[in-house]
Every structure is written in structure tokens, then in C-alpha cells.
């Protein structure tokens, strides 16, 4: 019960601090198993996507996060495990006890959806870095999954690196059309298609498409 109250408080706080608004352009909220994947600029990204979902869905959506960051102290461990029910992945191959894709498959097989960031690291520049292959391997092992692109705008400006207080800027999340791995689609084609679908939701691309 206490964890649920903390989760609600986190959601309310992130919306208050960022003025966050969610736009569902290509789909509507659904209890179907999905992988919400977005551009990655800060450690607050998954909280923003998670907070943008209807409250009834949040309990079933698990963020995929870097183990080395979230296991640094007791508070972070409590938040990621007990409040957000995250799936922790070791970035360094030498430190891994399990295959990351196996961990993700286990999470979705348990009935959950995921939030992940295919760039694999935070990107402080404009645009989107090339995707790592993990999203493809997950799609190959679970081809029935829907992959929903989510563009996060302004969060790195709301909370610039090294600042403790948020700036008064509006932050948005834009949810696009779900994708699935196509029959016979290879890794490079899938990575390019999912990345293009994410970039298409950026304000610049959406303005150019009008």
C-alpha cells in the first residue's frame, strides 16, 4: 500500500514539476502487452513516460533501467524495486549473470509491459543515436509484442545537467503508432524502422509533415 501511495506521489510530482502533457497520436492507452520505447536524455525519462500512462496501466508497466545507477544506494534500490518494479540490466557484459533479453522476455511473459530506451545511453544532443540491437532481439523472441514509440520533448531543458531546480518549461510525451516485427524483417531493417518511427514524432518532423 505504501509503495502505491509513493508511486502516485511520484507521478503527481513529475507532472507538477514538468507541466507534462501526453499526446496519443497513433494509438490509445491499452492493457495489451507493449514496449514503450523513447528518446533518452535523462534519468527522469522513464518516470515521465510512466506518469503519462493512465493510473490503471502503470502497475503493469515496468521500466528497464541501468543496474549500476539504480543500485548505488538504499533509496534508489527501494524506488526501482518496490515502487516502480523495474527490470534492471547490467550494461557491462562482464558483470552480467543473465542475458538481458531473457530478463525482458521473463517480464513480458509475466503479463507486464515495458519502458525502454534503445539508444542504450543518455543522449544530451539533439536527434536520436543509433539503436542498440536489444530491441530487435526482444521483438524476435516475442514477435507478438507491440512496440510504441514515445517522443519526450523538453525534459533535458526542464532539468538541465547539474541543476537541482526545474525550469518553467512545458514537457510533452507523444505516443505514436504501434509497430511489430515484420515477417522476415532483419535486424538492421527493424532498427531503422523503429528509430524512424520515433524521429517522426519529434516536433521538427511533425511540423515538416504538415
Automatic annotation (TrEMBL):
A Pfam family matched in the record: Acyltransferase
Superkingdom in the source lineage: Bacteria
UniProt-listed InterPro entries: Plipid/glycerol_acylTrfase
Keyword Transferase: yes
Protein name listed in UniProt: Putative 1-acylglycerol-3-phosphate O-acyltransferase
GO molecular function terms noted in the UniProt entry: 1-acylglycerol-3-phosphate O-acyltransferase activity
Keywords assigned: Acyltransferase, Transferase
EC number: 2.3.1.51
Gene name for this UniProt entry: plsC3
Record carries keyword Transferase: yes
First-tier enzyme category under EC: transferase
Any GO BP: phosphatidic acid biosynthetic process
Pathway given in the UniProt record: Lipid metabolism
